[in-house]
Amino acid sequence: MRPVRTAFAGALLGVLTLAGCGQSATTASPSTSSSSSGAPSAAAPGFPVTVEAGNGSVTIGARPERIVSLSPTATEALFAVGAGSQVVAVDDQSNHPAEAPRTDLSGFKPNAEAVIAHKPDLVVLATDTDGIVAKLTKVGVPVLLEPAAAKLDDAYDQIADLGAATGNAAGAEQVVAGMKKKIEEAVAAAPKDAKLTYYHELDTTPYSVTSTTFVGQVYSLFGLTNIADKAPDLAGGYPKLSAEFVAQADPDLIFLADTKCCGQSGETLAKRPGWSKLSAVTGDRVIALDDDIASRWGPRVADLVQQVGEAVGKAAAK
Questions:
Q1: What is the average per-residue pLDDT within 232-259?
Q2: Which of 55, 110, 165, 218 stands the most exposed, by the fewest C-beta atoms within 10 Å?
Q3: What is the sign of the dihedral through the CA atoms of 165, 52, 216 and 270?
Q4: In a 3-state reduction of DSSP, which class is residue 258?
Q5: pLDDT-based confidence at 317, cuts 50/70/90?
Q6: Rounded CA gap, 114 and 78, in Å?
Q7: How far apart are CA 90 and CA 38, in angstroms?
Q8: CATH superfamily, domain at 19-182
Q9: Do the domains spanning 19-182 and 190-317 agree at the CATH topology level?
């Protein structure tokens, strides 16, 4: 698990500079609403449809029925908008939802031949590693490159892209509307003047994130101050901090995004040299996040925002 998470962080560094993706207007009327359970829409929208993705304008001639997803975020979004029944294979890191057809396909080191063996009529991925987009396009497979989102609007746009590309535009609209509502409610419910500092841990190295990253902007919704913003080397938004740096900053809140991969908790933090007396540790303000939710930019981002909001509210009340 450790090499995979390191690779993911490296991939993020390489793709955050790519432009966000927006849905093209060259579609017919939207379909009837689709459920988030993976059932297809009652009536698909008109095709061909053109989507503006990270790899440019992509035209999809017919409603795809054999989708391959090499991105865990895209997999979550495809099932959420109602395209689950159209997905025939997903990468080895796509573990949500449980019914996703998980395979040994790699999104980090994609193999064109292995992907083509699934006879896809649409492939969705987050990075163009080893020129995979060109390799698949060369044999006539439509490809949507949906890179790591730099802001919430990018995440919304990508969900709209996937809805349009799969004939589930109405389902995508519902997902985005639900996300926005949940996020707005979480932010509105949190105290506005808490003036709290925080530390977000990616792994036990420890690597963290600055406020310029996607997850950093989630914390910014609540006016939190990120201790990593003052790191000596910001490393493109993912600085490697020293234990001494964190101890000296003594953040009010600590968010752990390495609970599943590395078994971290308030108890394990207390065993680190110099960390047992951290305010967040002694004050029971160490928040265990789901590693996957904290590292993806799909529909469950709203759950992350809600969890952060609840933590802020509890900390401010103490």
A1: 97
A2: 55
A3: positive
A4: coil
A5: confident
A6: 21
A7: 14
A8: Nitrogenase molybdenum iron protein domain (3.40.50.1980)
A9: yes
